[in-house]
Structure formats: C-alpha cells, structure tokens
C-alpha cells in the first residue's frame, strides 16, 4: 500500500424483511407506507452512511436507523457485525432491495477511506457529496440536494484538518463530530457550493497528510 491508496470497505451481511411485525415497526417509527425494511452491516461506518444516503436517491426508501459500533470493526461483536448497521424502510421489497443494491455499490466501488501513510494504518475520509439525499440532509440539517464535504480522520488529524478546510474554502459547519466518536475518530460535514466543498476536501486531505508525515512538528 502507498500514501493515498484507496482502503476499500465491504458489506458483511444483508437481509430484507418483507412485512415487518407491527411491534418492530413501532420501534423503528415506520410510517403506514413503510411495510418493508432492509438491513446491512459493513466494516466502515462513514462510507456506509454515504452509501445509505445514495440509496435514498436511487429508490423509494428512507434511512430509519444507522449506528456505528463502539471501537470499530477491529473489535466487532461477531464476524458479520463490522463497524455499522443501517436500516432502510420502504413500501415493498423491490424498493428496499434496490436501495440495498445501490448502497452496496457505493460501499464496494465508490466511497472509500484513503491511506495517509505507507502501511495504511493512518486512514482518513475526505469525500465530496455532490448532492445530498434524504439521510445526510437530515443529519447535516441542510436542504436536500446540498453539497457536503464529509471529513473524518483520527482525533488530532481531524481537528487540524477541519480548521484547514474551513480556512481554505467558503464553507460552513453543518455537523461537528468532536473526538472521540464511537470509532474514536472525529470530523464533520462542511457545506457550501460544490466547488467550495471540493476545495475543503482537498485542504483536509493535505492537512492530514502533513500530520502523518511530521507528527511531532510544532
């Protein structure tokens, strides 16, 4: 592996429940039109959240649950648990399967962390969301279709990078994740024009690479 190589994520398990039991539907706060859910686990939470958002743009589904697990995929509770679980709800199995399929495509082939050092032990996520779907719009409290810079890194790198990104582009903080998160990372969502969000991603990436190259520089 080399610096800036992609660190690909994987889907670990998926299931569709065609007709959710009413007691379960109540727990997920499903609407009357949401009779079906689809679940997935994966070994990377932030990539999965981007993928779940993309699912809401590709199919008639809503993200009704998404949660990271404590300590990350390396300390998962089982071989199919990974780092995160996501639940999509929709009117029927076809909609939910389409959403899960789109999420899987994004997780396995599109969004990814990158290596900040030669062995990939220091990883970061600087992903441009060109236009949010229903999930990230709600999580970032922005209008649907807004651009976001989705920025995540280990604790110090994340805070240094967020500051650099805010200074480099005309963006605002839509969500701030102070470390430690469940997976002991930090970061946030920055919003602005698509070009500004891309510039923010680039500045964040460079800041993380600078820390990785000279961690004790003052």
From TrEMBL:
Q: Which GO terms describe its cellular component?
A: bacterial microcompartment
**So which domain of life are we looking at?**
Bacteria
**Protein localization:** Bacterial microcompartment
Q: Which residues form a coiled coil?
A: none
- Pfam families in UniProt: BMC
Chief location: other
> What's in the keyword line of the UniProt record?
Bacterial microcompartment
- Which residue intervals define the domain BMC circularly permuted in the entry? 1-111, 112-215
GO terms for molecular function, please? structural molecule activity
| Family annotation (InterPro entries) | BMC_CP, BMC_dom, CcmK-like_sf, EutL, EutL_PduB
Name of the protein this chain belongs to: Ethanolamine utilization microcompartment protein EutL
Q: What is the lineage of its organism?
A: Bacteria, Pseudomonadati, Pseudomonadota, Gammaproteobacteria, Cellvibrionales
């Amino acid at each position: 592996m080399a610096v800036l190589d992609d660190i690909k994520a994987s889907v670990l398990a998926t299931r569709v429940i065609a007709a959710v039991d009413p007691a379960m539907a109540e727990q997920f706060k499903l609407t009357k039109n949401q009779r079906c859910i689809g679940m997935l686990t994966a070994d990377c939470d932030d990539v999965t959240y981007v993928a779940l958002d993309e699912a809401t743009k590709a199919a008639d589904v809503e993200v009704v649950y998404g949660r990271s697990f404590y300590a990350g995929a390396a300390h998962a509770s089982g071989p199919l648990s990974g780092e995160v679980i996501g639940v999509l709800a929709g009117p029927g199995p076809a909609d939910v399967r389409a959403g899960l399929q789109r999420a899987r495509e994004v997780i396995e082939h599109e969004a990814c962390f990158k290596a900040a050092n030669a062995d990939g032990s220091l990883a970061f996520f600087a992903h441009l969301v060109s236009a949010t779907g229903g999930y990230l719009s709600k999580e970032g409290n922005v209008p649907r279709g807004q651009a976001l810079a989705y920025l995540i890194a280990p604790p110090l790198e994340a805070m240094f990078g967020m500051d650099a990104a805010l200074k480099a582009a005309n963006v605002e903080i839509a969500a701030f994740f102070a470390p430690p998160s469940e997976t002991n990372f930090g970061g946030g969502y920055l919003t602005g024009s698509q070009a500004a969000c891309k510039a923010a991603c680039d500045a964040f990436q460079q800041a993380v690479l600078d820390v990785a190259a000279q961690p004790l520089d003052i």
